[in-house]
Amino acid sequence: MNFLSDYPPDAINLQSVRRVLVIKLRHHGDVLLTSPVLQVLKNHAPHIEIDALIYRDTQDMLIGHPAINQVLTIDRNWKKQGVNAQLRSEWQLFNTLQSRHYDLIVHLTEHNRGAWLARLLGPRYSVARNHPRAGNAWKRSFTHLYPHPKATQRHTVELNLDALRRLGIHPSPEERRLVLVPGEQAEKSVSELLQKHEVAEGQFIQIHPTSRWFFKTWPVERVAALCDALHAQGERVVLTSAPDERERKMIEAILARTTLPPVDLSGQLTLKQLAALTARARLFVGVDSAPMHIAAAMQTPIVVLFGPSGDIEWGPWMVPHRIVTSSHSCRPCGNDGCGGSKVSECLTTLPVDQVLAAIRALDASGPTL
Q1: pLDDT for 176-202, tens place per residue?
Q2: Model confidence over 134-187: pLDDT tens digits?
Q3: Of the candidates 176, 208, 241, which is a domain's last residue?
Q4: pTM, full prediction
Q5: Which domain holds residue 134?
Q6: How far is CA 335 from the centre of its chain?
Q7: Euclidean distance between the first and final Cα of the chain, in Å?
Q8: Same domain, yes or no, for 193 and 163?
Q9: Which of 225, 232, 286, 341 has the greatest count of CB atoms below 10 A from its CB?
Q10: CB 185 within 8 A of CB 178
């Protein structure tokens, strides 16, 4: 007899649940780190229908996920369309949600919208984190609350899965992997692109040096030096970035400083295409960013540079990797650069040789999960 099978005492009966809404209103990487929650729910209750509510610009992170029935989205641009247009869009979304008659809401952020929906939609069960600033209104909105770890750090994937543990759903280790499906169209277009540039699958290193937060990036001079060093070792390098103008300018600055320019695919790929490309790379090199999490989802070995952000909470998940950091006693500080300057010395001082050593170590010793 397993005396722990009924714990927690208020564990829910998944057989009584037909439809679930999982809410994650954050950025691309945050949404991707939610993907194991969806898979675990489906594995433990194959009969349920699972919907996800996320921001529209992050939908590529979940579209195609085998556990999801439908992806519902909120467009951040609704606010720019005027009050009446925004209200119409919000009302249409609410009617759609209401028509689904959810039995369970899993809210994975501290966004107040989740509390409102838990009240207005009236599911039998609802779970959210009991965050430090939670007031009585927040606490009364949910049937189950789970704690944040005290005096310790925990990976974001595990924090997300804690919502399920609170309900009595305990994932096995293999169920915790990230899930991202590029799709047939993205796979085909990337194959054609690599053929065009005469780049062989599994025979190139992808470097994605940019981030929407520039205080997380490495200096362009060092990225260029890394590209040249890898070329000198006979490696084929492919550079990628988002189409954002600032990121493209950073790539241009890197290319201007290289002796042997790498293949430049920066700004040319959708998120699905980026995933398809990364899946074909021998190795991914980057910083703390959504593309790094995409690499983890595609099971591509990773060398990642971490500065002010925490590698314990945000590091590569369940994939062979090496993390490159400095010895600064103040990291991870979580600040946008030293003194709010947008420049993080724990990153700018990292030498090229340290990154090259991490690449060699990962190649030589195999998986480190």
Answers
A1: 999 999 999 999 999 999 999 999 999
A2: 788 999 999 999 998 877 889 999 999 999 999 999 999 999 999 999 999 999
A3: 176
A4: 0.95
A5: 14-176
A6: 20
A7: 33
A8: no
A9: 286
A10: no
